[in-house]
Every structure is written in structure tokens, then in C-alpha cells.
């Protein structure tokens, strides 16, 4: 999952090149919704019990499990805070974005 | 095999013979016995399908869409307010190019609460991108469901098979149930060009920017335009196997007629009886029954009606502030013709009021007496 | 074309009666159309069922206003409603009743027949005296009186279409057919 995503925009020059449905038009590859975020989740892995609840609850599938540990994908995390709310060990805190 | 069955069950048999794989339905009013029989068929193994009970019609369609995207042949049925609740999902079905086939029992919209027939429920869904077939007999219902899958899956556009509440849904008629082996030969298993699959992951229905959206709609319209020819082609193929032809319209004695009724649903069959009676009295009447409503069979309607001096369109529906929906369509079909018939728009039978043979007599008298309609809507049977 | 109207009360199986008759007639190659009262059914309330029979396809989907014959499944309806409403001259009135036809006062233009379907049903253990299931018996009589179908076709239709007590229902229909 740490593989770098290709963020090149997909452009079709005619309707004939296009799929029948809005299928993998690639919009999410360049439309990085993480930019909408005001606060971001920060995970303290030293307290994490690897229960996977944050991964399960994230409505935007923005928490990946990397080598058994949760990792936030900040490209797409919108900062809703559900992971922090649901974490049974309270090891996720929401921190104000600095930019 | 001949069987005496009601219209609701004609839909069920159609779905069974088409080997629907996933059936999702909300089982309470305004639902009818369509899904009751299907759930029994699923339970006793007659039909190898997953029956999903859901909490609303909106969810019923959503479940069908999920299954359809995964490559399953899906079926559902509803009526009136239930169809209205599905509205949003209807757009998802057509926009997502998922060939769901749905039965709709034409029931009038509440309030006042009604379980009786009129067409406002399905016609309110006119612009959702669904193919719409209106049936006049239980035989036609069974045959149309099977043919609808063939057309829908070829073009990846969903279809609605529509029949009048009670007048057909609860009416028993003799139906020739097609042989399963023959249906299987006519309708091969559903094999979509794309599907949800973990082997070949794609994101479906995602954000579509202005640079792409319009082309998707263009493609849907272009495929819609292919429907009339495909109805002919698949209809002829069906006729070869089963001996019954299902076209876009039924032309009953329209050629050379002085007056043609334009009808749909069960009234479209009663009209045939009236035409026979009028012919005996020396009035050259004909009946053009519209079977395919979306896309509208402009070509055929134009060809048939342009040679007729007077046309009486019967609508069991109303577009408030305008007039009957079929009337609009017929007028628009005729618009570019150099010689145009006088077209009269009648509204009758709303909320399940019977459209009797006597009502057609009133329509005939008015149409023959006047050169042009005296009002935009001529109401039949309103207690004034 | 023959058009028949059935009068019964909700819960008596009036609609089933018309369906059995339709099945029997279809077996002999007839075209049939049977439909119930278009509405909500309430137990005990007067209900209707209709049937059209023809040797050619039936296109008329409008309601039946002028039946050729009427069948009265529940005798109490004779007093309660006008069962002859719209009935054509010369029409047959077939009533489930222990009385003789001449005990009913109908205009001479109609022909009255009676069959004690309730008695037949109860003796064949179809329902109870208070709530008899008379539909198979009444259809047995109707088929005979109106010369609509052979007894064998009706027996066959009952075998296929009546899930509960098929043998009792068959016997009731046969007895009513023979007595009518």
C-alpha cells in the first residue's frame, strides 16, 4: 500500500475511448481529498494493540494496515476523527493542521 | 404448458424462466403477489436464486444494483409509492448501466391512498433512463420479461415491465408458459462486459468531472436509440421459437382507418373490442397500442398515424398543468409530418376507475363530431 | 362469450371458486378471464368474482356490467343486496340454498336454480356449518347447470388447484354435479 500512486489525470479525447460507465475514471488519483482536512489523526503506535478497529471504522478507507500496524493515508484522510473516537486504547489524537 | 395464472404471477414466471439470480424486494404494501411466489420458488428450490428481503424499495433497488454489478441477473417488483421511493436508485441503475429488470404494477399515487390502477407512477419515472414496456395480457407479461432481459443485457440499460393493477395484476388468464430449455437457448446467461471483481478492481460511479460526464450521457442516449431496432430483432427471434411476436406497438386495423385510438395497458385490449364493434357499424376505426413507451417508438407511430385523419389518444395518467403523457408523445412524433392528423387527448380511468366500452363510444362520438379538439384535455367520466 | 358474476362473502372462497372454474374451462381449450372484485377484501363483507368464457381470445379488459348469469355462494346475500343488478334477460340465478327455486321471488325473466352446497360441503367435512367451504360444491353445480365443462375437467382442476382436502373437495364437486 505504500506504493506511490500515479497521480496523472486521465483524459479521454472522445466518447469512443470511454468506458460505458463511470468506471475507474481515475478522479480519485488526482483528487486528493486529504487537502480538505482541518485536523489530522496521529497514532501513537507504542500504545496500539493492533486491534484494527480504526481500519474497520474509517469511512474513507484511509487507514491501511502496514506490517500489522495501522498507518494513516494522509492523501485521502478528511480528518473526521472517527478513528480517534473508536480507538479502545485512545492512542489516536486529532491534531490541528499547521498549513 | 398452458396454465391459468394472474398477472402478478406472470411476472414471477417470467423472472423464473429468465433464471434471475438475485431478487430483492420489499414485501409490504404496495407490493403484490409477484415476489410472494418468487420467494416460494426460491425456498422450494424451483428457482436457484438469492431472495433478499429489504426494509424499503430504495434498498430493494440498491441490493439489485450491487448484485447486478457483481454480474448477477437481478429482478425486483414494486408499485406506486414504492416505485417513487426507488427514484434515486433508478438513476443509479441506468447511469451505472446495470440491466436490472423490474416489474411495476401500475397503481395510482397517494394521496388519496389508492391501490387501484393508473400510470402516473411509472410515467413519473419517464426520464430516469429506463426502458419501459406496457403490457396488456398475462401472456405478454411473461414473454416481455424474458425479452426485456435480452434487450437490457445487450445494451446494459435497465427495463421496467409494466401492467395495470387488478385489471391485469389480479386477473387470471390462460398463459402458455414457455419451455425452460427454449428460454435458456433464447436467453444465454448474463455476462457483463465489466463487473465488480477483486481480480480486476475498478472504482465505479466515482466523481465524474464535467469533462467526462456529458459523454457518458451521450453514450446512454445513443444506446437508448438502438432499443427500437433491437425490440424488432429480438421480437422476431422470440417469435421464431415461441410463435408470439412482441413489437414496439400493435397496429390493429389502423391502415386506411378514419379514426385511430392510441392506447396502452389493458385499455389497449378493450379498444380492440370497441374497434370491432365500430367496424360493424360502418365506422372505420383502428387501434394503435403502444407497448414500448421508452424509448418512444417515434418511427412506427409517425408512419402509422400520418395516414390517419383523426387520432384519439387515451391517457390513464396526467402531467399536471400540461396534459396526458401519451398525448404529448404522440403530438411530438407527428410534429415534423407535412400532413398531420387532428389529435385529440382524452383522460380516463384515473385511480382505477374502469375504462369501459361505453367510454370509448364517448371518445368516438367526440372525435367524429369535432374537426379539432375543443379543449386541451377531454375528460371522460368526471362527475361534474 | 359467457360472463358470470359470483356473489359471496369475504373468506368463503368465492374467488377460488371462479379460479377453479377457470382452470376447468381452460382444460377444455376455452379462453377464460377470471378476476376478483378490485379492492380490499374484508372477512364477511359481500364480495364479487367475475369470469369471462369464450372459444376465442378475450380482449375485453373492462369490467362486467351485464352478466349472463349470477352465482350466489352465500344465500343471505339474496336479501342483503340486489344480486340481479345488470343481469341479462333469460339469465340463470344459481343459489346455494336448501330451498326450492320457486321459493325465491325473482322476476320471471330470470331462471332460478338451487343447490344445497352448504349441506354437501359440511357432509364432506369441508369447513363447519357456521363456516362451510362451499366453493368446490357450488362450482360442481354451476358446471352442470350451465353445461360449461365435463365433470372430469373439473375434477382434474380441483386436484391441481385445491391443496387442502383434495379428495373431500372432489367428492363434494361430484355430488353437487350429480344433484344439480
Architecture overview:
The complex is a heterotrimer of chains A (99), B (384) and C (180). Chain A has 99 residues and is of the alpha+beta class. Helix content of chain A is 14%, strand content 18%. Chain A has a domain at 32-96: Alpha-Beta Plaits (2-Layer Sandwich), CATH 3.30.70.20. Chain A has helices at 27-30, 53-57, 82-86, and strands at residues 39-43, 63-66, 69-72, 92-96. Chain A is elongated, with a radius of gyration of 16 Å. Residues 1-5 of chain A have low confidence and may be disordered. By secondary structure, chain B is of the alpha/beta class. In chain B, helix 2 links the parallel strand 2 (22-25) and strand 3 (50-53). Helix content of chain C is 34%, strand content 21%. Chain C has 6 helices and 6 strands; from the N terminus they run E-H-E-E-E-H-E-E-H-H-H-H. The mean pLDDT of chain C is 93. The interface between B and C is medium-sized, with 26 and 22 residues.
- How many individual β-strands of chain C? 6
Task: Write down the overall geometry of chain C.
Answer: globular
Mean pLDDT of chain C: 93
Note poorly predicted spans of chain B: none
User: Beta-strand level of the residues of chain B, as a percent range?
Assistant: 15-25%
CATH class label of chain C:
Alpha Beta
Short description:
Chain A is α+β, with helices and mostly antiparallel strands. Chain A has helices spanning 27-30, 53-57, 82-86, and strands at 39-43, 63-66, 69-72, 92-96. In chain A, strands 1-4 form a two-stranded antiparallel ribbon.
Amino acid at each position: 500500500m505504500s506504493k506511490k500512486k500515479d497521480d496523472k489525470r486521465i483524459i479521454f479525447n472522445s466518447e469512443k475511448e470511454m468506458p460505458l460507465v463511470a468506471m475507474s475514471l481515475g478522479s480519485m488519483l488526482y483528487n486528493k481529498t486529504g487537502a480538505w482536512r482541518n485536523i489530522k489523526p496521529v497514532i501513537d503506535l507504542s500504545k496500539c494493540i493492533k486491534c484494527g478497529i480504526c481500519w474497520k471504522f474509517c469511512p474513507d478507507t484511509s487507514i491501511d494496515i502496514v506490517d500489522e500496524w495501522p498507518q494513516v493515508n494522509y492523501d485521502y484522510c478528511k480528518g473526521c476523527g472517527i478513528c480517534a473516537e473508536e480507538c479502545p486504547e485512545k492512542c489516536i489524537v486529532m491534531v490541528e493542521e499547521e498549513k | 404448458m398452458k396454465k391459468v395464472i394472474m398477472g402478478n404471477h406472470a411476472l414471477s414466471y417470467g423472472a423464473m424462466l429468465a433464471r434471475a439470480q438475485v431478487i430483492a424486494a420489499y414485501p409490504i404494501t404496495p407490493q403484490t403477489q409477484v415476489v410472494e411466489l418468487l420467494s416460494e420458488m426460491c425456498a422450494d428450490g424451483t428457482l436457484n436464486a438469492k431472495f433478499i428481503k429489504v426494509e424499503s424499495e430504495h434498498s430493494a433497488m440498491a441490493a439489485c444494483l450491487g448484485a447486478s454489478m457483481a454480474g448477477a441477473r437481478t429482478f425486483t417488483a414494486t408499485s406506486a409509492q414504492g416505485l417513487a421511493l426507488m427514484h434515486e436508485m433508478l438513476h443509479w441503475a441506468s447511469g451505472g448501466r446495470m440491466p436490472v429488470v423490474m416489474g411495476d404494477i401500475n397503481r395510482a399515487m397517494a394521496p388519496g391512498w389508492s391501490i387501484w390502477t393508473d400510470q402516473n407512477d411509472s410515467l413519473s419515472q419517464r426520464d430516469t433512463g429506463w426502458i419501459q414496456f406496457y403490457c396488456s395480457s398475462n401472456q405478454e407479461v411473461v414473454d416481455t420479461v424474458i425479452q426485456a432481459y435480452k434487450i437490457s443485457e445487450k445494451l446494459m440499460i435497465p427495463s421496467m415491465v409494466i401492467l395495470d393493477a387488478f385489471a391485469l395484476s389480479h386477473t387470471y388468464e390462460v398463459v402458455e408458459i414457455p419451455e425452460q430449455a427454449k428460454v435458456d437457448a433464447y436467453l444465454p446467461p448474463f455476462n457483463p462486459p465489466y463487473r465488480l471483481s477483486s481480480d480486476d478492481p475498478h472504482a465505479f460511479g466515482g466523481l465524474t468531472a464535467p469533462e467526462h460526464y456529458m459523454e457518458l450521457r451521450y453514450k446512454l442516449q445513443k444506446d437508448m436509440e438502438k432499443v427500437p431496432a433491437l425490440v424488432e430483432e429480438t421480437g422476431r427471434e422470440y417469435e421464431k421459437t415461441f410463435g408470439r411476436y412482441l413489437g414496439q406497438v400493435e397496429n390493429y386495423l389502423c391502415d386506411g382507418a378514419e379514426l385511430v385510438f392510441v392506447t396502452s395497458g389493458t385499455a389497449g385490449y378493450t379498444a380492440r373490442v370497441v374497434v370491432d364493434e365500430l367496424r360493424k357499424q360502418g365506422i372505420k376505426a383502428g387501434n394503435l397500442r403502444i407497448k414500448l413507451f421508452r424509448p418512444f417508438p417515434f418511427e412506427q407511430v409517425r408512419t402509422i398515424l400520418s395516414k390517419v385523419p383523426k387520432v384519439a389518444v387515451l391517457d390513464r395518467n396526467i402531467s399536471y398543468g400540461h396534459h396526458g403523457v401519451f398525448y404529448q408523445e404522440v403530438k411530438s412524433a407527428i410534429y415534423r409530418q407535412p400532413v398531420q392528423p387532428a389529435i385529440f387527448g382524452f383522460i380516463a380511468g384515473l385511480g382505477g376507475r374502469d375504462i369501459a366500452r361505453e367510454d370509448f363510444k364517448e371518445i368516438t362520438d367526440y372525435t367524429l363530431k369535432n374537426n379539432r379538439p375543443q379543449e386541451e384535455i377531454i375528460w371522460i367520466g368526471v362527475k361534474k | 362469450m359467457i360472463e358470470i358474476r359470483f356473489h359471496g362473502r369475504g373468506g368463503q372462497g368465492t374467488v377460488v371458486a371462479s379460479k377453479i372454474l377457470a382452470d376447468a374451462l381452460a382444460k377444455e381449450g376455452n379462453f377464460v378471464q377470471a378476476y376478483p372484485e378490485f379492492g380490499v377484501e374484508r372477512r364477511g363483507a359481500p364480495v364479487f368474482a367475475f369470469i369471462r368464457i369464450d372459444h376465442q381470445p378475450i380482449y375485453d379488459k373492462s369490467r362486467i356490467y351485464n352478466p349472463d348469469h349470477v352465482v350466489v355462494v352465500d344465500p343471505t346475500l339474496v336479501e342483503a343486496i340486489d344480486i340481479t343488478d345488470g343481469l341479462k334477460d333469460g339469465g340463470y340465478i344459481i343459489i346455494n340454498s336448501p330451498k326450492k327455486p320457486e321459493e325465491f321471488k325473482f322476476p320471471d325473466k330470470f331462471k332460478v336454480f338451487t343447490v344445497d352446497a352448504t349441506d354437501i360441503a359440511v357432509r364432506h367435512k369441508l369447513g363447519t356449518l357456521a363456516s362451510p367451504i362451499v366453493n368446490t360444491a357450488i362450482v360442481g353445480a354451476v358446471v352442470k347447470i350451465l353445461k360449461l365443462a365435463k365433470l372430469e375437467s373439473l375434477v382434474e382442476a380441483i386436484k391441481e388447484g385445491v391443496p387442502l382436502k383434495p379428495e373431500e373437495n372432489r367428492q363434494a364437486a361430484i355430488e353437487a354435479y350429480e344433484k344439480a
